[in-house]
């Protein structure tokens, strides 16, 4: 893990220099992945790194954990409550949709808007500081498409995208992430009681095993294959239609 941490820190510095930027910013949710990234950007840029906490229908425990994360790595931070912004925007959208509003998609549309508002906030802050926005997706989430397109999936840099969830947890322990964050059940905090594994229908252990080429159950294999196939559009650039044939 020491070698992994040092390699990522070096890569982050290279990317910032190549972009002629000054530093890095990450959203800190109180979860494992963002905690690891928070520690990494602090190591890469001790004086030019920032963690942003953005409560929005959030579990208060997660916000407390987020506060402990930034304290654990002495990361400069700020909190921006997006609750009122989200309520104004989503209620206006629903009102304008009128009788075409699809109640069955309400929960997911609401959750995706929250993720995109948070990313918009990070980019606004990044522009102000001339920083790059750092993402927090791991290998399992990326392969499964378990992220919001143009939300948490939209970032300038993805430093832990090659690490399985197990490896991220090991890296967290090495970096000194608070133990309650390392051990907590993964959740995108989309709604009360939501957990990643319950929503996906499989476990991170199974996904990690699959990514390492190890055997998994037929049920897990079917879920993994289906999610990967159905979310392919999230991992590619926008499709482009060309009226002229290539010569």
What would your notes on this structure say?
With 247 residues, the protein is α/β, with parallel strands linked by helices. Helix content is 53%, strand content 6%. The protein is built from eleven helices and four strands. The chain has a four-stranded parallel β-sheet with strand order 3-2-1-4, sandwiched between helices. Strand 2 (49-53), helix 3 and strand 3 (77-79) form a beta-alpha-beta unit. Helix 1 crosses helix 2 and helix 2 crosses helix 7. The radius of gyration is 19 Å and the shape is globular.
Task: List the strand order in the largest sheet.
Answer: 3-2-1-4
Report the strand count: 4
> Could you tell me the mean pLDDT?
94
Order of helices and strands: HEHEHEHHEHHHHHH
Sheet bearing the most strands, described?
4 strands, parallel
Return Rg in Å: 19 Å
Strand content: 5-15%
The multimeric state of the shown protein is single chain
Helicity level, as a percent range? 40-55%
What count of helical segments does DSSP give? 11
Quickly give the structural class: alpha/beta
| Gross morphology | globular
Could you give the distance between the termini?
Answer: 49 Å
Which stretches are poorly predicted, pLDDT < 50 over at least 5 residues?
Answer: none
Fold blueprint:
Layout: H1 2-18, E1 23-27, H2 32-44, E2 49-53, H3 60-72, E3 77-79, H4 83-97, H5 106-129, E4 131-133, H6 139-144, H7 165-175, H8 179-183, H9 196-200, H10 204-211, H11 218-230
Parallel strand pairs: 1-2, 1-4, 2-3
Features:
4 strands; single chain; four-stranded parallel sheet; 247 residues
């Amino acid at each position: 893990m020491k070698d992994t941490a040092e390699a990522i820190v070096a890569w982050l510095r290279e990317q910032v220099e190549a972009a002629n930027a000054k530093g890095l910013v990450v959203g800190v949710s109180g979860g494992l992945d963002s905690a690891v990234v928070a520690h990494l950007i602090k190591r890469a840029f001790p004086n030019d790194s920032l963690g942003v906490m953005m409560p929005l229908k959030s579990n208060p425990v997660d916000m407390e954990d987020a506060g402990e994360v930034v304290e654990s790595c002495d990361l400069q931070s700020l909190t921006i409550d997006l609750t009122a912004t989200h309520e104004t925007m989503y209620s206006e959208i629903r009102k304008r949709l009128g009788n075409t509003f699809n109640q069955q998609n309400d929960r997911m549309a609401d959750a995706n808007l929250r993720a995109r508002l948070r990313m918009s906030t990070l980019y606004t802050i990044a522009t102000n500081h001339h920083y790059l926005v750092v993402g927090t997706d791991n290998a399992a989430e990326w392969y499964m498409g378990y992220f919001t397109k143009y939300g948490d999936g939209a970032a300038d840099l993805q430093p832990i995208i090659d690490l399985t969830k197990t490896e991220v947890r090991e890296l967290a322990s090495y970096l000194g992430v608070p133990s309650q964050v390392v051990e907590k059940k993964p959740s995108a905090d989309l709604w009360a009681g939501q957990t990643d594994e319950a929503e996906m229908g499989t476990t991170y252990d199974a996904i990690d095993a699959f990514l390492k080429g190890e055997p998994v159950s037929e049920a897990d294999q079917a879920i993994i294959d289906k999610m990967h196939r159905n979310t392919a559009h999230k991992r590619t650039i926008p499709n482009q239609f060309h009226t002229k044939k290539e010569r």
